[in-house]
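task queued by scheduler; priority normal; single chain, no ligands, no partner chains; default sampling; output format set to structure tokens
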Amino acid sequence: MKPLFAIALLLAVPALAEKKERKPRSILDRPTIYVGVLEELRERDANARTNVGTANYKIHARVMFKKPITEWEGLPRRRDLSEAPNDFPPKLVWSACYQGKRVLSFESFNAPGYRFLSHIGSHLVPPGVRMPAADAEGNKFAGWREEKENRRPLVATTGGRCDDVDYWRKDEPPAKLSQIPFMIKLKEELAKTTWIEYPENENGNVAHGGTKNYKFRETEVKWGEFYSSRRTKAQVATLVVPGSDKRTHDEVFFIAPNGEISYIGSSLYFLDAADYDGSALSTLMFRMQSQFRDGYVLVDGNGRRLADFHWGYE
């Protein structure tokens, strides 16, 4: 019995040593997580260089954010379109998410080049990739040009996580919620900026515009979309404010569980939320649509604006 026991012990030692050597993966060893969208991309006819003209659309992926270690980053948006594709990974495997569920898995491939600034980050997808028809929402997400009815973009991640651990859903503002604290916060934010400089457009020009000059009666301000987290009790509120340019502006705020209000930004539309990085807190994605500029914004579950990715137009 003793020789057999000795042989068994010798065989077990390497296995025990191997098991002992296995250590938890360092945070430095974690693969980079990319987050983007599956959306409809506007492809203009070669002769349609103005707002009015022939245009066709195709489904594509847009690579915008990455988390290599601890912080989310927006990917570069360089001016030289011939070199811009080098800033993006050649191939990615995605999970498209919606309301806490994976609705689609697909691959995407880096575009060989971009024709316009609005194509920055574009990845080609196989012809068989389709967006759910149920996500059509008029021209709400059509961008600054608002040319056509289109589908709601789907947030996509390479991390494989679509769980909305905070359970964000569209809601109604509480009946007793006053707009006054939000207007005070908005005026504080506007006071910090005296001039707006929009990004370079596709002709290389820079468009300028003055600060929004809000002159309105309290009765003219209305609640827009409202979202709440069933788990954390945090909320996202939109205030629709008339501007001096005869257009309304959607001003978006974050309401912490303790009632503290913070300003997220202007012309933002809630897209979706999920725990893309395994932090046990959902990250929120917003679509940005403002004058001369479209894009996306990542916001954490505490209302902190993490990263932006945007582009200009002609």
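post-processing summary
- The first strand starts at residue 33 and ends at 44.
- Residues 4-24, 45-54, 194-211 have pLDDT under 50 and may be disordered.
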